[in-house]
Amino acid sequence: MDRIVVADDHPLFRAALRSAVEKAAPGAVIAECASLAEVQAALAEGATDLLLLDLKLSDSEGMAGLTRIRAEYPAVPVAVVSASEEPPTVRRALTLGAAGFIPKSAALPIMVEAIAAILSGDSWAPDVGAPGPEEGDLEARIASLTPSQLRILEGLRAGRLNKQIAFDLGVTEATIKAHLTSVFRKLGVHNRTQAVILAQSIDL
């Protein structure tokens, strides 16, 4: 029996997603969440076959929630569900490890199709074409980061100190410093300020 977590801070849209899940995976156990904290608690309860994640929750916005879940639960497939349907947003979510991207404007049958495809192990997203050279270069650099390094970059963007990021990740400050060297090298930047500017440009 599938276990699926639905995360959206709007009750009406959670109900729409629940309806799509019930059609795509009859009999599935469905957990509804309104915040990233609730998502983390739900995922900690047991094996999850799919997380449907809105990009804008009460305690998370942009790609931060996706990067955090990918770092903490790399085995859980995550499908982003968002009203932000611009091609760069779709491509960025997929680059950061999303198994799919479902626009909120999609009709119910399309949502059902997408959920069923992702549950079967396929990827599903609207056709948004290829990125331009500059965007493609940025996506390649972001894709080279590990989930832990993405969380460190998220911490930098939030203005957290090395020791605070180390506490968040449960590692030593020396480990964070070592990771930062690799993060800067992969991103092609030389310091924290440049890394933060880059993180802001991708809505991390």
Q: Regions with pLDDT < 50 over 5+ consecutive residues?
A: none
Architecture of the largest domain, CATH level 2? 3-Layer(aba) Sandwich
- Which structural class should the secondary elements be placed in? alpha/beta
Mean pLDDT: 88
CATH class of the largest domain: Alpha Beta
Distance between the termini: 34 Å
**Counted beta strands:** 7
The CATH fourth-level homologous superfamily of the largest domain: Response regulator
Question: SSE order, as H and E?
Answer: EHEHEEEHEHEHHHHHH
Total count of helical runs of at least 4 residues? 10
Organism: Brevundimonas bullata
Domain HTH luxR-type: 138-203
Protein name: DNA-binding NarL/FixJ family response regulator
Modified residues (4-aspartylphosphate): 54
Q: What is this entry, summarized?
A:
The protein is an alpha/beta fold. The chain is 53% helix and 14% strand.
Describe the 3D structure.
53% of the residues lie in helices and 14% in strands. By secondary structure, the chain is α/β, with parallel strands linked by helices. The chain folds into two domains: 3-120, Response regulator (Rossmann fold), CATH 3.40.50; 133-201, Winged helix-like DNA-binding domain superfamily/Winged helix DNA-binding domain (Arc Repressor Mutant, subunit A, Orthogonal Bundle). The longest helix is centred in the C-terminal third of the chain and has 15 residues, at 173-187. It starts with a strand and ends with a helix.
